[in-house]
Amino acid sequence: MKKIKAAFQSFGHVIVDPVLYVAASGLLLAIATVCSLGGGAVADFGTLLSAATNSAVIGNLSVIFAVGLTAGFAKKQKANAAVYGLICYLMFLYVNNAYLTLTKQLAEAGEMGLFGTGQAMVLGLQVTDINVFGGIIVGCLSGWVYNKLIDVNVPEVARIYGGPRLALLAMTLVSIVFALVVTIVWPPVAETINHASVFINASGGLGQFIYSFLNRALIPVGLHHFMWMPFDYTAIGGTAIVAGESYSGAANIFFAELPHIASGAITTINDSVRFAMFGFGKEFLSLGAALAIVYNARTENKKAIMAMIVPLYVSAMLSGITEPLDFILLFASPALFMVYSLFYGLSETLLYLFGVRLFNIFGGIELITVNIALPWGVTKFPLYIGLGVVFAIVSAVVFTVMIRKMNIMTPGRAKDWAAEVDGDASQTMPVATITSSEQNEIATTIIDGLGGAENITSLGCCMTRLRVEVKNPELVSQDTIKKAIDKGLFVNGTNVQIVVGMDVHEWYDMLRPILRLED
Predict the structure, then answer these.
(1) Would you please indicate which residues are annotated as catalytic (active-site) residues?
(2) Residue that finishes a domain, picked among 161, 181, 201
(3) Distance of CA 321 to the CA centre of its chain
(4) Which of 121, 158, 311, 454 sits 20 to 30 Å CA-CA off 323?
């Protein structure tokens, strides 16, 4: 069970990086949509920008996930792993197409193209329509094979076939088997996914509440990616036909509809977008939490608390990085964090029931750039903002009542709080601004807190956290780690997650050479 849980957590943090590229492309697509509303050269530029984002990136998520997951899972030589992952995915496509051709199973396109036939065009090849799942499965398989074979000793005379090449030789057979198996196995799996999607969509407000609540409640264990990612990028979130093309997943459907919504060709946004509105809590519920923490701090601590909380809220509101605030609430009181999660479920349910339909996963920057040019009658943007203000106020009041009635020690409420946090200011500064000697000292402190280098079996990172596997969790000292970085810490068995922030890759690069970890 521990290995299964560790595998899910590993997948959760590896999948984030490819998704972030999609988020960046979404912002550019919004700009392309605005340009397309103009004329002449501006509209032409919009067309080119749309091709570079919607067609190139969002239209090829399978290959992006296959390469991203393979490189993400790779424990060393990640550049080689990326090339190897691309080859593995191409092998899967070509073998599947060849098998369908040999067995005369290629479907004929109808008025709606290949929609409904169980097949699709991917990189110019007609293949079994396994959608984004194909890239995800290939990425996981190729990453697993790669790590198993990368360190296998090969005789000197055959050294050219060692390392990544040995993994490729093995994965060739795996790709062939997988490409053949999906033609038999995938149709019933796709039918099951379709039924699950229909059930979730038919559940209305209840299904929305469960989805939104779990999406926040699972954050401490790092499994929230398993809630939103399938709904936003796979058929679990729904399937729709846009301009004669089939799209699956809330995010993919919305971005396909985006230029048509802006032009007025589409007057209603697909309901699946409700699975992509959880940025609401990042902007407004985080504000409620921040206000409650500042308001309930002791008078002598308020300035210091504001200096700490305001940057955390700004980061949460603009870029969607809520984990520092999340962990503050969780560590202060699990009950407080649970109510915070319930507010997420309630708020997104009301947005859905009141007919708000807009796209917002990663926070305020995305909210404005992606949605502001769309007709407010379609998105109900003003209602979104109005509900946000209401929820910010209500959540702040509820959190305040809980903090006072339950005497919850949120930051600044303890008499000796200032003394507790008085330490080296470098722990809250970006790595790039810290001197080399300070970096070494901080890295050494973190490693000591993890039980020493010999207790660390693997080191990775996701969007905001260092993720570490240790041999003996009893050797982990949370107090020692917090001397170096104290934005949030979660220990679950041998898995240790240290919240760092958006510069997590710099922290990872700082620790890796000290631990003698290879690329």
Answers:
(1) 462
(2) 201
(3) 11
(4) 454
